């Protein structure tokens, strides 16, 4: 199981970014995929998740209404569309099988992540 995140960058508050999570070694049909983030000095937290079988999504309250998750099974890629970004969204973003940190940690497939920096 391997995942590679990309698409991060530096934007001003109110801007948008689309992050990508390319999965290899398994199919998106097999697992729900979660997006997580970790800000400096803070614990890794859940951002949102997409189901493997019906594409349903769920989000943390802090990003609900601003972030959306989609997937392209043909490309084995999951996307995080982050809109109306705020400085508090600044973090390294990761993806993993599993919708919460406890389950994600059991896969032990954390990649390098992709840095998102939002300036005010």
Key phrases:
single chain, 120 residues, mainly beta, six-stranded mixed beta sheet, four-stranded antiparallel beta sheet, 1 helix, 10 strands, 6% helix
Gyration radius (Cα, Å) is 13 Å
Q: Helix/strand-derived class?
A: mainly beta
Return the average pLDDT rounded to an integer. Answer: 95
Counting copies of identical and different chains, the oligomeric state is single chain
What characterizes the major β-sheet? Answer: 6 strands, mixed
Mass-distribution shape? globular
Give the strand order, joined by hyphens, for the main sheet.
Answer: 2-10-9-4-5-6
Kindly state the percentage of residues in helix.
Answer: under 10%
Strand content: over 45%
Element order: H for helix, E for strand: EEEEEEEEEHE
Report how far the terminal alpha carbons are from each other: 37 Å
Given as residue ranges, the uncertain stretches (5+ residues, pLDDT < 50) are: none
Annotation, overall tally of beta strands: 10
The number of helical runs is: 1
Q: Could you explain how this protein is built, in words?
A:
The chain has 120 residues and is mostly beta strands. Helices cover 6% and strands 48% of the residues. It is globular.
